[in-house]
Design brief:
The longest helix is centred in the last third of the chain and has 22 residues, at 233-254. This protein has 11 helices and 8 strands. It has a 6-stranded parallel beta sheet, sandwiched between helices. With 258 residues, the protein is of the alpha/beta class. Residues 38-39, 41-42, 45, 85, 163, 165-166, 182-185, 188-190, 201-203 line the site of adenosine-5'-triphosphate.
Length: 258
C-alpha cells in the first residue's frame, strides 16, 4: 500500500497523521466517503481551537467519565471514523471500565459492521455489541442507526456517542437516555443537545478519558455524583464559544501569526 511518510517536524504532523488514519479506514471498508467530509469539518474546528485540549474539554471529560462510571448500563457507540481514529484507546477504555462498545452506523452494511467488529477485536476490545448479538429496530430514526443492540443502546441509561449527528442525539434523549458526546464543533446540534459535550479532537480525548477513568474508578459514588451534579453543559459550551471568539480576536489583532 502506498502510505505517505509524514515527517514528525511537520507543523501539521498530528493532523496529517489523522488524515492518514481516516484514509486507511476508508481503504479497509471502515470509513465511508461522507465520513471524510465529516472529518474535514472537525479539522476546521480543531484549527480554530488551536489543536490543543482546552480547559472546557478537561471539565467535560471529568464529568463524562464520572457519569459513565455512575451509570447502571453505560455503552460507547462506535461509528466508522471513531473506529478508524482511536481503536486501541476505545479497547483500553472498555477493558478498564467494563463498558461495552457498540457498532452503530449511519451507512450500515453487513460487510462494514463486520469489518469494524474485526478491527476493534484486533485492537483488544473485550466486548463489542451491535453486530452478532440480538438487535432491535428503534422508532424515531430514519437511518440505519435505528438498528441497535438489545443489550447495548436499547437498554442503556448513558450513551457516549462521539462524532454524531443531531437527529440521533435528539432521538436518544427522547428515549430518556443521558448522552455524552465528543464533538469539535460547539455549534453542532449534537453539541448543543447532549448532556455533556467534550469539545475536542477524539484523538486527544480518548487517552485523557483513560487517565480519568484510572483516577476515578475507585472513587465513591458520592464523589462521582458531586462531579456530575456540579457540571453545567451550557456553561461549558459558552466557555468554548467565548474561547474561540477571544482566540480569533487575539490572532486577528496580531495580523500575521505564522
Ligand atoms: P449536527 O447534525 O449535530 O449539527 P453535523 O451535521 O456536523 O452535526 P456530522 O457531520 O454527522 O454532523 O458529524 C460530525 C461531527 O463530528 C462534526 O460536528 C465534526 O465537527 C465532528 N468531528 C469530526 N471529526 C472529529 C474529531 N476527530 N474529533 C471530534 N469531533 C470531530
Amino acid at each position: 500500500m502506498n502510505q505517505v511518510k509524514i515527517p514528525r517536524s511537520h507543523p501539521r504532523y498530528e493532523s496529517l497523521l489523522l488524515r492518514e488514519k481516516i484514509i486507511e479506514g476508508y481503504k479497509k471498508g471502515i470509513v465511508v466517503l461522507p465520513g471524510l467530509i465529516a472529518h474535514g469539518r472537525g479539522e476546521a474546528f480543531d484549527y480554530i481551537i488551536g489543536e490543543k485540549t482546552q480547559d472546557f474539554a478537561l471539565k467535560a471529560i471529568e464529568a463524562g467519565v464520572a457519569m459513565l462510571l455512575l451509570a447502571e448500563r453505560p455503552v460507547v457507540s462506535v461509528n466508522g471514523n471513531t473506529a478508524a481514529l482511536v481503536p486501541a484507546e476505545l479497547a483500553r477504555f472498555s477493558e478498564l471500565t467494563g463498558i461495552p462498545l457498540e457498532v452503530n452506523l449511519f451507512y450500515r452494511s453487513r460487510e462494514r459492521e463486520e469489518a469494524i467488529y474485526k478491527w476493534l477485536k484486533m485492537h483488544g476490545a473485550p466486548k463489542i455489541l451491535g453486530v452478532y448479538d440480538e438487535r432491535i429496530e428503534l422508532d424515531g430514526f430514519e437511518s440505519m442507526r435505528r438498528i441497535v443492540s438489545v443489550e447495548g443502546i436499547y437498554s442503556a441509561d448513558v450513551v457516549l456517542v462521539p462524532l454524531e449527528d443531531g437527529d440521533r442525539t435528539e432521538a436518544l434523549k427522547k428515549m430518556g437516555k443521558k448522552v455524552i458526546t465528543i464533538d469539535l464543533n460547539p455549534f453542532s446540534r449534537t453539541a448543543q443537545k447532549a448532556d455533556i459535550t467534550i469539545v475536542d479532537n477524539i484523538y486527544r480525548v480518548l487517552p485523557l478519558m483513560i487517565n480519568e477513568a484510572k483516577r476515578l474508578i475507585d472513587a465513591d459514588r458520592e464523589e462521582l455524583t458531586r462531579i456530575v451534579s456540579s457540571y453545567d453543559n451550557k456553561r461549558i459550551l459558552s466557555e468554548a464559544i467565548l474561547f474561540i471568539r477571544d482566540r480569533l480576536t487575539r490572532l486577528g489583532e496580531q495580523g500575521v501569526f505564522v
